[in-house]
Design brief:
The chain is built from one helix and ten strands; from the N terminus they run αββββββββββ. The protein is α+β, with helices and mostly antiparallel strands.
Length: about 150
């Protein structure tokens, strides 16, 4: 026994999917990596770099000693073309897990967030990488700063 109502609804959903899927796929943010750089960040002052095709990026965090049990306040100053920003801390010599954190837009050039780093029980002077991803209409820019903690 067939129910024509269910067939009509299924056919309608299929046609709707065929029509809307291309539009939805076009709206997905680009993931192409347009530029990437890695540089040292002494943490005594904001770390600065200029990305080709985007402009100047300034990164700072406090406290600068990177204590594992204290929240870290992260500030990021970027060109206005940036639509969203994220950061994740990566253990340089040891895998410590990945926990990307989205930064909150304060205005078109300023992002911030508060997060924590993982605790290393083996080495209290753990070296960290701060991987920052900046999303624009054209694609993604990545800046990786090498950070060094002191006990």
């Amino acid at each position: 026994m067939r129910n024509p109502g269910i067939q009509v609804v299924c056919l309608g959903l299929l046609l709707l999917g065929i029509v809307l899927l291309p539009t939805w796929l076009q709206r997905q943010p680009p993931t192409e990596l347009l530029a990437a750089t890695t540089l040292d960040c002494p943490l005594k002052a904001p770390c600065l770099t200029t990305l080709e095709g985007l402009g100047e990026v300034a990164f700072s965090l406090s406290p600068t000693t990177l204590p594992h049990s204290t929240p870290l306040k992260i500030n990021l100053r970027v060109p206005p073309e940036v639509q969203s920003a994220s950061v994740q801390f990566i253990g340089k010599e040891m895998y410590m897990g990945l926990q990307p954190v989205l930064l909150e837009a304060i205005d078109s050039r300023h992002y911030q967030t508060t997060t924590r780093i993982s605790y290393c029980t083996i080495d209290t002077s753990m070296n960290w990488l701060a991987e920052i991803r900046l999303h624009t209409r054209e694609g993604v820019y990545q800046v990786t700063f090498t950070l060094e903690t002191t006990p």
